Amino acid sequence: MDLGIKGKRALVTAASKGLGRGCAEALAAAGVDLVINARGVEALEATAADLRKQGVSVTTVAGDVTSEAGLQAVLAAAGAVDILVTNAGGPPPGSWETWTRTDYIKAIEANMLTPIALMTALMPGMMERGWGRVVNITSQSVKAPIAALGLSNAARAGLTGFVAGTARQVAPKGVTINNLLPGIHDTDRATALDGGVAKARGITTDQARTERLATIPARRYGTAAEFGAACAFLCSQHAGFIVGQNILLDGGAMNSTL
Predict the structure, then answer these.
(1) What is the DSSP string of 79-90?
(2) How far is the C-alpha of 3 from the C-alpha of 82, rounded, in Å?
(3) SS3 216
(4) How far apart (Å, rounded) are the C-alpha atoms in residues 239 and 176?
(5) Which residues are within 8 A (CB) of 112 and not within 5 positions of it... i.e. 6 or more apart?
(6) Nearest alpha carbon to residue 74 among 62, 85, 58, 57
(7) How far apart, in whole angstroms, are the C-alpha atoms of residue 144 and residue 66?
(8) Taking each helix axis from N to C terminus, what angle separates 114-129 and 68-78, rounded to the nearest 10 degrees?
(9) Which residues pair with 185 in a beta bridge?
(10) How far apart (Å, rounded) are the C-alpha atoms in residues 81 and 90?
(11) Do residues 82 and 136 lie in contact, with contact meaning Cβ atoms separated by under 8 Å?
């Protein structure tokens, strides 16, 4: 399918690995020029080199986008983008009994306030031009909370509430905002979480992974490539009537009728 976005310009944050990279790769395959951000210079530049093989322009901005300096550097490089994909690593697992105010603020900065700041800065230009796409990578936890990921539950739920109202306000100007809610995908994040479970329970990482696979009806972890394809579709010319939605990509793990 021709997504109709060749020649558009996109900003993708946390794009050097995992789901962010999957989204950047799918957009590059559709002919979208990219500005990509991540903290690690080496991985970011390696990703950029691979993306350029698709024949698109790729600008890299290394740094922490959750900091004010990092945010301004990313926005300066982004300029007038047509597509924004926000992504950030999730907070560490733990328990409400041990989290401090600092832990909550850090999670909110990364997983709520930074995406909102990016949207606030970039959507006015999209609205003026009469076309834009925003996709926020959140988590299945906004629909079904995960006890050990309470920091993520809280911060991402706040972002979801912001999007619910804002998406309806910008839609008349041709700008859509939607959220993609990943379940378990075969990324570094999944490996780290499996490792944490294995350590806590005194089992191997393979055993922890096997147990979690059994909770997913698809009986596998998702891939960054298929996640990226879903993201690219939401960014396409064909998705203009999808507004303010929270779309699960979890292999059926969340058991609900609606």
Answers:
(1) -S-SEEEE--PP
(2) 14
(3) coil
(4) 8
(5) 155, 156, 158, 159, 162
(6) 62
(7) 26
(8) 20
(9) 222
(10) 25
(11) no
Three-state DSSP class for residue 4: coil
Sheet holding 132-137, edge to edge: 58-62, 33-38, 9-12, 83-86, 132-137, 175-182, 246-249
Burial 63-96 (b: 16+ CB within 10 A, else e): bbbbeeebbebbbeebeebbbbbbbbbbbbbeee
pLDDT digits (tens, 9 = 90+) for 33-80: 999 999 999 999 999 999 999 999 999 999 999 999 999 999 999 999
Of the pLDDT bands very low, low, confident and very high (cuts 50, 70, 90), residue 176 is very high
What's the rounded mean pLDDT across residues 248-255? 94
Residue pair 148/94 in contact (Cβ under 8 Å)? The answer is yes
Q: Which pTM does this prediction carry?
A: 0.93
Sign, CA dihedral 24-163-124-68, equals: negative
Burial of 42 (0-12, 13-18, 19+ CB in 10 A): exposed
Q: How far is CA 91 from the centre of its chain?
A: 14
C-alpha 21 chain-centroid distance: 10
Q: Where are the alpha helices (DSSP H) in 109-217?
A: 114-129, 150-170, 188-201, 205-213
